[in-house]
Write a structure and sequence with these properties.
201 residues; alpha+beta; Ribosomal Protein S5, domain 2; 4-stranded mixed sheet; 4 helices
Length: 201
């Protein structure tokens, strides 16, 4: 379910079932940051909880996947589903602010996020990590999640590490900053029309 008019609730439900994953997501862009997240990937649960809290989106997520192989399919498909949910909520993008950005500190880490709800899917990812794992979570999956998310939300997303030595802190800065940036970008602004001189996004 999407949003046909600004007066309607901006809520979406996405159900994805494949031979690799089974995912059900409920998203409310005008929530209060409530979350109920169970992805079967504990580190991702932590990051998605931060994303919901700092975006003020209400997020319900239940996911099962072939984690006996690795976390790749589950993490990527959750990115797909959350991206699709945001795209569904925004429909024709009338009245949204469109742009959002943040520079988010997490102890020694500092992360820049900039988002444009442009209808043009693109990820620019400039993040180096001092190691390739946090616990049993492969850090390369952060980029896979963000790429799947940006492409399915149809947004332009820039992610850049400005400072940081601790992998957990850097990733936490990314997910908090993503939430903060999308909170700005999806807010309804003073104008009612499409925020583009083209008249379409």
């Amino acid at each position: 379910m999407g949003c046909m008019e600004l007066s309607e609730k901006r809520i979406a439900e996405i159900n994805r079932n494949t031979t690799e994953t089974q995912i059900l997501i409920g998203l409310d862009l005008d929530g209060t940051g409530k979350y109920n997240v169970d992805s079967s990937v504990p580190f991702l649960d932590h990051m998605l909880s931060l994303f919901a809290k700092h975006s003020n989106f209400d997020l319900n997520l239940q996911a099962r996947g072939d984690i006996h192989i690795d976390y790749h399919h589950t993490v990527e498909d959750i990115g797909i589903c959350i991206g699709k949910a945001i795209d569904s909520c925004l429909e024709n993008k009338k009245g949204i602010c469109r742009y959002g950005h943040s520079i988010t500190p997490m102890d020694e880490a500092l992360v820049l996020i900039a988002a444009d709800i442009s209808g043009r899917a693109f990820l620019a990812y400039d993040v180096e990590f001092p190691s390739m794992q946090v616990g049993n979570f492969d850090i390369e999956l952060v980029e896979e999640f963000l790429r799947a998310f940006a492409h399915n939300a149809k947004i332009t997303l820039h992610v850049k590490k400005l400072a940081g030595r601790n992998c957990h802190h850097i990733i936490e800065g990314i997910f908090k900053g993503l939430g903060r940036s999308l909170s700005q970008a999806t807010k309804l602004g003073p104008q009612n029309g499409i925020p583009s001189t083209k008249g379409i996004l």
